[in-house]
Design a protein that fits this description.
With 146 residues, the protein is mainly β. It is 14% helix and 38% strand. The chain has helices spanning 52-64, 131-138, and strands spanning 12-21, 24-30, 39-40, 43-45, 68-81, 88-99, 114-121. The mean pLDDT is 96. Bound molecules: isopentyl pyrophosphate and magnesium ion (3 copies).
């Protein structure tokens, strides 16, 4: 009887958005497979033909109802998830953006995937942080232009 081992899934690309408001960023607790119960930024899979900026605006709208502008590329990181139910490999493209309508408030449009959105100051982020974000914070990453 031969043991058949499934090949690992191919690496995928995701975009994560540092939505800046004053000294805070928008974060929410993930309730899905990868990073379950960890605090993360609004993020999502890059879909066919999208630019990074288009993906950021689409995922932000889908997940929070917010309209964003001034989307800028910040950094890309390579993330291997071996401690999950199934292994995963994500290249995460980090961008920053600001609200197109300054006082717009976020809605939790995917309550099965997110515990709720809130604004957190960068120097007092919620814990535990989702792996890719934690790694950036640990190396002193700062998404603010000011
Ligand atoms: C590693 C992680 C950023 C993977 C992709 O993000 P996500 O689970 O938020 O994806 P979707 O919003 O597209 O469902
Ligand atoms: Mg999404
Ligand atoms: Mg998506
Ligand atoms: Mg998402």
């Amino acid at each position: 009887k031969t043991l058949v081992v499934a090949p690992p899934p191919s690496p995928q690309v995701a975009v994560a958005i540092c939505l800046l408001r004053g000294k805070s960023v928008l974060m929410g607790r993930r309730l899905v497979s990868i990073g379950n119960s960890k605090y993360s930024l609004p993020s999502g899979h890059l879909e066919f033909g999208e630019t990074f900026e288009e993906c950021a605006a689409r995922e932000m709208k889908e997940e929070t109802g917010l309209d964003i502008e001034k989307v800028e590329f910040l950094k890309v990181t390579n993330n291997l998830f071996l401690d999950q139910p199934t292994p995963a490999h994500y290249v995460v493209v980090f961008v920053r953006a600001v609200l197109a309508v300054p006082m717009q408030t976020p809605l939790n449009l995917e309550p099965d995937k997110c515990g709720g959105w809130d604004w957190y100051e960068w120097d007092s982020l919620p814990q535990p942080l989702f792996g890719p974000i934690k790694a950036m914070v640990m190396e002193g990453f700062n998404p603010f232009p000011y």
